[in-house]
Design goal:
The protein is mainly alpha-helical. The protein contains 11 helices and 2 strands, in the order H-H-H-H-H-H-H-H-H-H-H-E-E. The protein has a two-stranded antiparallel sheet with strand order 1-2. Strand 1 and strand 2 form a beta hairpin.
Amino acid sequence: MNDVRTQATSIFPTLFLPSEGFFQLPLEDRISMVNMVFGNKIYPSLELRFDRMDYETDHNTKILDLDFIVMVGNYLDFSLLGSSFFGNEDEFIEAKNRSAQWLDGRKEKGIQSFLFQTIGGNTREFFDNGSHEYTNSNIATKRQKLKSILTDSKFLASDLLAYHYCLYSSMERYEHVTEETSYSAWDLCFLQSRFISE
């Protein structure tokens, strides 16, 4: 593994695991580290995929998909809506519980209704880079559409992300969609090869 990959893998847990390193990282340092590793990449999601795989291999561990969705969702909320990053484990657990609620069919009705009214119910246009059908619109257009539907709503971008993941993970033969979810969301955080917050 070359020095750049080694450095990216060593930074990965600080940026993406719910730990003291993540919770205590100053905002300026976080953005600087994100841009150092992921900036100037054609597909930041590809870099993230490799970093996660390398970390899991090196540490003989598996990061739970929902945990990873929640962490990437925290970046997406910051990038699109200016929300804060988790400051402690309690905030992470609260966000994880909020995300996990979409696994309960009785609780998904509100977000389902919201999505049908705003975008016809289709979250794949935002969170499925793996499908050619949903890669036609560019990142700036997707960001603008997400921001416009979330403004004045009770939902966060991370809610849509988690709902999308929970919805497709409950269906047979949609593994390819759930595998793309967090990486597609990560690409939405970048414009002109830089992590952005508007």
